[in-house]
């Protein structure tokens, strides 16, 4: 995990509220969250108040769930750059008796995901191309699953809010990390086709001069994938200081830049592979562009 993704600034002393979290959140070391969704919800809702080491491990766990699920204590500690004993305290912090109990929650979710993928592959094999690997079918199925997840997890209220804010902007600045370029370019093209003034920025080193043109009445869309560059994060902070509306699409649940957004959309649930991420990004970008068009057409 890179330093730029650390949700807790280095060198910051734990606040009084953070120190109070050094005891298990549930108040009972034998009753941690029963499933991964509940555990993630706790991490996402309260990570800003966690002690630094706990916040770092929470971030690693959400970014690398399979490493947590199927790694050894030694391999996980090495990857997360912590001591093995820190993993034990990490489990106890969330109400488990130790790390093994927390790990079992990740393992259960991991096995469920593996079974789902296996079922999908079986369905492909018994299709028309039985007995032969069908690259087209497998790719289409992966994209379909990604789209299905997006349809189930993106709140309509968030889409309406983001579309409404962007439809009122004089100019829309689109800042994209390099891995987000495919759907950033698509989104920019959609806006230009609607005669919306949109500026696509993919070179963070030279973006400062262009962002200096931003004024009240403009808006920003941040398209990011892990790892988030420190330059992109710095630009988002500067945009926030201008009090511009910010819409963020991210595959990093604990992204410090997404935390500054007026509306954020998570791409992580669509899948960790590049195809799923790009598919989800294009679908979400298209939906957002359609929402902006609808808002502009509303009297």
Can you tell me about this structure?
There is one protein chain. By secondary structure, the protein is of the alpha/beta class. It folds into two domains: 3-106, Orthogonal Bundle (Arc Repressor Mutant, subunit A), CATH 1.10.10.10; 153-297, Glucose-6-phosphate isomerase like protein, domain 1 (Rossmann fold), CATH 3.40.50. The chain is 55% helix and 8% strand. The chain has helices at 16-20, 36-46, 52-63, 65-70, 73-80, 84-93, 99-125, 135-153, 156-167, 181-193, 207-211, 230-241, 274-297, and strands at 172-176, 198-201, 219-224, 246-250, 263-266. The protein has a five-stranded parallel beta sheet, sandwiched between helices. Helix 6 (84-93) crosses helix 7 and helix 10 runs parallel beside helix 13 (274-297). The model is unreliable at 1-23 (pLDDT under 50).
What are the defining features of this structure?
299 residues; alpha/beta; Arc Repressor Mutant, subunit A; Rossmann fold; 2 domains; five-stranded parallel sheet; 55% helix
Summarize this entry quickly:
The chain has 299 residues and is of the alpha/beta class.
Instruction: Determine the CATH topology of the largest domain.
Output: Rossmann fold
Overall SS class: alpha/beta
How would you characterize the largest beta sheet?
5 strands, parallel
Q: Give the total of beta strands.
A: 5
Instruction: Let me know the CATH homologous superfamily of the largest domain.
Output: Glucose-6-phosphate isomerase like protein, domain 1
Number of helices: 13
**Radius of gyration, Cα only, in angstroms?**
21 Å
Low confidence ranges: 1-23
Share in helix: 40-55%
């Amino acid at each position: 995990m890179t330093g730029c993704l650390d949700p807790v600034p280095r060198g910051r002393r734990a606040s009084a509220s953070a120190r109070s979290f050094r005891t298990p959140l549930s108040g009972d070391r034998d009753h941690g969250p029963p499933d991964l969704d509940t555990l993630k919800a706790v991490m996402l809702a309260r990570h800003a108040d966690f002690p630094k080491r706990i916040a770092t491990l929470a971030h690693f766990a959400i970014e690398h769930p399979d490493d947590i699920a199927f790694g050894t204590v030694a391999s996980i500690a090495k990857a997360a750059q912590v001591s093995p004993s820190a993993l034990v305290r990490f489990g106890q912090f969330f109400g488990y008796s130790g790390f093994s109990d927390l790990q079992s929650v990740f393992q259960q979710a991991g096995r469920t995901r593996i079974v789902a993928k296996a079922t999908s592959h079986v369905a492909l094999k018994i299709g028309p191309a039985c007995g032969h690997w069908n690259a087209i079918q497998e790719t289409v199925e992966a994209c379909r699953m990604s789209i299905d997840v997006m349809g189930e997890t993106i709140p309509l209220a968030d889409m309406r809010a983001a579309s409404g804010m962007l439809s009122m902007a004089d100019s829309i600045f689109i800042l994209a990390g390099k891995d987000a370029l495919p759907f950033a370019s698509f989104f920019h093209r959609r806006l230009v086709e609607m005669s919306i003034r949109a500026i696509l920025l993919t070179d963070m080193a030279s973006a400062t001069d262009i962002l200096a043109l931003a004024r009240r009445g403009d808006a920003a869309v941040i398209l990011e994938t892990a790892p988030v560059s420190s330059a992109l994060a710095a630009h988002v902070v500067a945009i926030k200081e201008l009090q511009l509306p910010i819409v963020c699409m991210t595959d990093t649940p604990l992204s410090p830049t997404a935390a500054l957004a007026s509306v954020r959309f998570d791409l992580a649930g669509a899948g960790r592979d590049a195809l799923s991420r790009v598919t989800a990004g294009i679908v979400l970008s298209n939906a957002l562009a359609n929402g902006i068009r609808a808002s502009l057409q509303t009297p």
